[in-house]
Amino acid sequence: MPDNHGVETLNELLSASLWARSLTPAQLERVEAETQVREFAAGAFVCRKGEPVEQWIGVVDGLVKMTSVGPSGKTTTFTGVTSGGWFGEGSLLKDRTRKYDIETLRASRIALMPRATFTWLLDTDLGFNRFLLMQLNERLGQFISVVEQDRLLEPDARVARSLAGLFNPLLYPDQAADIQISQEEIGYLSGVSRQRVNQALQVLEKAGLVRPAYGGISIVDLEGLRRFGE
Question: Could you give the CA distance from residue 171 to residue 111 in angstroms, rounded to a whole number?
Fold first, then answer.
């Protein structure tokens, strides 16, 4: 079930990525040549906690979730990453092993940029460095929100915030107002049962924040979703 903002190939992913827009043709050619695209079935692990961090990861097409299992066995979902998104730069900058699992929620095509390519961009392109600062700041905000969501928010608000997180204009600059996502997938991202997601969506629709769309959800009031439950 692909997203509908037009990212289907590595070239289109790069065209939709803010950091790639400042690259020279020669830089872009090297990135395209050295970045691999792999296909993963739904429910597959793109990478596992504890594995060596050797790649920066982009979602060409699909939907993945970033999770971690604590000592008590509780699973925390930090965020979902949809088509057009890149992640894992923090681990490449400071860690040798990954601190979380990345699992596909549907069949997905994933771009894998080698550490050497990532480091070369970091060393040679000012625009790439500026993008990483912005990206890291946005991710930090998301993770802080997850802590608040997990401890304080009731299910309707958790669903609202999880949906809003997929429409961050800095992380996903070309995301359309309609997103193809199932209630089951929303449940995986928000930590809420599918049945409870259905109830939450009805509440959000009555509040004028979302409306049903073919195969997914249409966002009517993004700021309202972000503030829901405050």
Answer: 16
Distance (Å, rounded) from C-alpha 96 to C-alpha 91?
7
Task: Indicate whether 80 and 127 sit together in one domain.
Answer: yes
The whole model's pTM is what? 0.81
Position of tokens 């600059």?
173
* Contacts of residue 200, Cβ cutoff 8 Å, sequence gap at least 6: 155, 156, 158, 159, 160, 192
pLDDT exceeds 50 at position 1: no
State the residue range of the domain holding 221. 155-227
Q: Judge if 122 and 178 occupy the same domain.
A: no
Q: What is the pLDDT of residues 71-100, one digit of tens each?
A: 777 777 878 898 889 999 988 998 788 888
Measured in degrees and rounded to the nearest 5, phi and psi for residue 54 equal -125, 0
Q: pLDDT tens digit string along 165-188?
A: 888 777 877 667 788 889 999 998
Distances (CA, A) of 159 to 19, 212, 216, 220: 30, 15, 14, 15
